[in-house]
Each structure stands twice: as structure tokens, then as C-alpha cells.
Amino acid sequence: MPFQIFQSEARSILSPVSGFLIQAGFTHSLTPARNCTFGCSYCYVPTMRVQAGLRPDDWNHWGHHTTFKTNAAQLLAKSLRSGQVIYCSPLTDPYQPAEATQRLMPAILECLAAAAHPPAAFVIQTRGPLILRDIPLLVAAAKRTRLRVSFSVTTNREDVRRIFEPHCAPVEERWQTIKALRSAGIAVFATLAPLLPCDPEPFLARALAETAGPVIADPFHVRETKRSGATTRAAAIEICNHHGWTEWLEPSFQIGILSQMSRLAAAQRRALGYGPNGFGLLAHADIPGEIQPGT
Ligand code: SF4
Questions:
Q1: 179-210 pLDDT per residue, tens
Q2: Which of 34, 43, 123, 161 is the best mutation target for the ligand 1 pocket, counting ligand atoms within 8 Å of the beta carbon and taking the most?
Q3: Where along the chain do its domains lie?
Q4: Distance (Å, whole) CA 44 – CA 244
Q5: Which atom of ligand 1 is nearest to the CA of 128?
Q6: Domain 4-284 classified CATH 3.20.20?
Q7: Taking 90 as the threshold, does the pLDDT of residue 71 lie above it?
Q8: Is the Cβ–Cβ distance between 195 and 220 less than 8 Å?
């Protein structure tokens, strides 16, 4: 079924954050579209329903359509202030496939580069190799603000990736995207989130090899440890049950995997961050080789 793409004008574009993101040190989020046609089986966004600004058709048909906020850049230009730490985006992927034609991100990046009062940091959370289209604009923005890319790689197993996120890029293409961003001087993180069934040791080794800063990880969110709020979508839980991967939903197993990965990272004098502290590194950790604002 082809994805449907809609457009609308938003009343505002920067939202003050709460919960996990405020604990991680962010002040605002920027969500350029409602719904996301990557449609990942585990996506927590549709479980938030109206709290995520969604409408019933969004959470009932997650990934089938998306609505772009066409005036995002104009609103952003009026909203930027120094000191803001912006996360783009907790509720959609700014480089979902339809961004190829809708082109909201180039205008947003131009806005950052031209801002009289650029934010302290601007973090782009994505799993879309389409971001490579905007490298020159990312470089220009990185000269004005601490621009970082948190690039999601969820497993080292292509068979697993295809089952949980069939509309996303293959694993190897994502590593190549990280490599290209890093070559351009963009501060890029490998964000292993959510942590799908994988081979932890070679997966982490690749993440360490392809990046220069901390690696971020986050296991499936489950009700056992997160009593309320966003959680893993039922479709991913059904996949785990069907394929015998239920241990990846168990908090004790998750902690064991994170501990194993942390030890492996520490052995290479690198950090593995998770939880709010881990995501806080996205805005605040220094990355060797990154473009510095003011240069
Ligand atoms: S890319 Fe992110 S926002 Fe989009 S469906 Fe997947 S997890 Fe959800």
C-alpha cells in the first residue's frame, strides 16, 4: 500500500520537554511531521496517543500516512533562543522517506545556520540515510550550534532488522551513512535503540569502530520497569513471541546485555550510555573531529 502524505500548518514548532528528555538535559523538541512512514513495529509513539499530539487515525494506522508541518522553518526562525537544547524528534523521524519530496529539513537547517541566536545544541535523531542529502547544510548549521546526529542502528542482524523494521534502511547502509557523516565532520553517534535481538559483541565492536564518541543504547521499553507513558508497540511484542525472542523484553536480560556492552566499551576506553544520562551525552559529549560552532 502506498504511503499517504498530507500537509498542514502548525501553530507552534518547539515544544518544552518533560520526562525522559528533560532528565537528559534537553529543553525543547521539534517534530516536523505527525506520524512516520518508517512504521517500525516497536515504535513507542503511537502508544502515547493524544500525549504525542496524534489523532485516532494516526495510532490506529501507524506508518500508513504522515502529515508534514509545512511552516516548520518559519515558526522555528521566530522561536530560536540561545541556551535551547533541542531534540528533533521524539515523535517522528525527520528523515522518513517522504522527506525526500517534502524537504522540510533543508529549510530547518538553513534556519539554524542563519539564526541570530542559535540554540546551544540541536540533536537530529534519525535512521534515514536520506540525511546525507543535507551534508552541506548540516556542516553550515554545525558552525553555529552544537549539531549532533544520533543515528539509530538497532541490530547487527539483517534478518532481524527486516522483521522488525522492513521499511528502514539495511544495517550496512546505516553504517555507511554514519561513516559519511563522520567524514564530513558531523558529530555522529551510533544509537543502538531499541536494542533488537543481536550479537552484542560484534554489534558493539562495529559501533565503536564507526564512531569516535560514546555509544548510546536503549532496550525495549516494557511495562515491568515503566509503569506508565510510552512503551513498546504490541506488534514488536508479538514478533518476539513468534520468534522466541521474549528474553529481549525481560529487564534482567536487558541489564545483562547492557552490562556486557558497557564492559566491552570500557575495555576500549569508550563509554556506553543508556537511559536519560546516556541520551544526555547526545547534546553534551565532545566528539573528536567534530566541527565546532564559531569556526
Ligand atoms: S523511525 Fe522512529 S518515529 Fe518512525 S516509526 Fe520508527 S521508531 Fe517510530
A1: 999 999 999 999 999 999 999 999 999 999 99
A2: 43
A3: 4-284
A4: 21
A5: 1
A6: yes
A7: yes
A8: yes
